[in-house]
Amino acid sequence: MEAVDHLAEERNRAEFDVEEMKIVWAGSRKEFEVSDRMARLVASDPVFRKDNRGILGRKELFKNTLRKVAYAWKRIIELRLSEEEASKLRFFVDEPAFTDLHWGMFVPAIKGQGTDEQQQKWLPLAYKMQIIGCYAQTELGHGSNVQGLETTATFDHETDEFVIHSPTLTSSKWWPGGLGKISTHAVVYARLVIDGKEHGVHGKFYRPASEFDDHLPLPGITVGDIGMKFGNGANNTVDNGVLRFDHVRIPREQMLQRVLQVTREGKCVESNVPRQLIYGTMVYVRQIIVADASRALSRAVCIATRYSAVRRQFGSQDGGVETQVIDYKTQQSRLFPLLASAYAFRFVGEWLKWLYTDVTERLQANDFSTLPEVHACTAGLKSLTTSVTADAIEECRKLCGGHGYLFASGLPELFAVYAPAPTFEGDNIVLLLQVARFLMKTVSQLPSGKKPVGTTAYMGRAEHLLQCRCNVQKAEDWLNPSVVLEVFEARAARMSVARAQNLSKFANPEEGFAELSPVLVEAAVAHCQLIVVSKFFEKLQQDIPGRGETTITGSLLHICPKHSSQASW
Question: Which of 45, 218, 269, 356 is most buried, taking the most CB atoms under 10 A from its CB?
């Protein structure tokens, strides 16, 4: 058969500057240059090969990951890479590992909840990976319901120690990545008990997980790997673990005490550091999750788009060339909205980076006014982006026909890696219900004249949005971004107000909330979709360089609403 480079033909027909579009995606020329340099570094090194992951047994797969992680750390030191460069290199290695939890959860927990002295003691060790940590919060019996955690940390007045204990089977720490084999330390969440009185689970405890010389568990600790997970390769490169305590003692000083301190006498003392500071870590983690969603979705869309350009089916006459799959409207209507969503999530992720900086500055200035809105916003965006991305990766597999089912397509493993995202760091439905509570409270405060802020500012125009009518007369009118934005605002406002009115009919608000929870989730999704569209719109208002970049980016915005009638977005 005669070789035909269909991708080259498609690229030559582009009505925009591909090189400049790379800058738009990266966020800045500097970020693109760093990403490009790290990508080439990883791609040119045979140690980082990943084509054999799906055929390796679990033990060899895990050993292979350890080799890659150790080699990556060696290269980071040898090349004296910056923190940004090191992060990009780890991303392009593209293999889930214990280091994801060490850098993504363990280190931020110490930074956000440890005192200055504790940070000075432990962070240098963590930065050099002389200690390797995990984040032990989730238990076998409780995940999203943090207040239901059963592990206890009881203060012993005589010895000035905390006694950590797992009183039930369901109190076993379950799922923490890096816990099963590798971690030497953990941040453990437990119920603080002093003189028989519980003080909630706000106590955070830092403890040695195993000895340095032989890496065996300390006395009283049962720890191990929880076994194979979904898919070949995928997250089986991570040692998700189980951890149980049998009256394990740790010094009182190993409680993370930035917000709450326990004195030698066993008194709980609130520090002068506001408790709300922990929200900064939450925003940071959720911002990363949203950014990861855009990257995962973009990879799936890239595979499906290239396949659609190369694959030909039907349409030939008299033995002529068949039609490229990408030219079929049915393929475009399924694929292009996913491409638009990848960009939309990218842009809202950029905004969340700004939001994290803004929240951090406000918290340091003891300004907590935006915290409820920020919490609802980040919870909702985590839920929306991860749910859409997980479903979209599977849709991309189906867009590639039977070939998408092959491990070699990259899509089965990508789906298996991403599948846990709608569950970890908060179950997506639970998070949407938190958003719904915030929206119901916002609506209830409108009659008092309290002005909504941030992403709920549109609620301040609720009276107009409840009555306005769409002035679109012809299809071209939808090309006006402000028209699209107001439609999303009107939909979100009307759904929230209608749910609030129905909720007010219940004598018991909690019973009403439980009864109306399915439609409350719908209102929360509408609000989150509005945030994504509004940030896409704001991106278009910026000066986007290059030939045709603004036009093509605007076209992507118009594709997003077309997809919004579907269940996922």
Answer: 356
Active site residues: 425
Give the whole-angstrom CA distance, residue 480 versus residue 561. 12
| Residues ≥6 apart with Cβ < 8 Å to 247 | 163, 164, 165, 220
| Helix, strand, or coil (residue 161) | strand
Q: Does the annotation list 548 as a binding residue?
A: no
pLDDT tens-digit map of 500-528: 999 999 999 999 999 999 999 999 999 99
Report helix, strand or coil for 270.
strand
pLDDT higher than 70, residue 99: yes
Is 138 known to sit in a ligand binding site?
yes
CA angle 28, 34, 36 (to 5 degrees): 100
Report the 3 state secondary structure along 10-42: HHHCCCCCHHHHHHHHHCCHHHHHHHHHHHHHH
State the pairing for strand pair 260-262/268-270.
Answer: antiparallel
Q: Over range 350-354, report the average pLDDT.
A: 91
Q: Give yes or no for a contact between 239 and 328, defined as CB atoms under 8 angstroms apart.
A: no
The whole-model pTM stands at 0.90
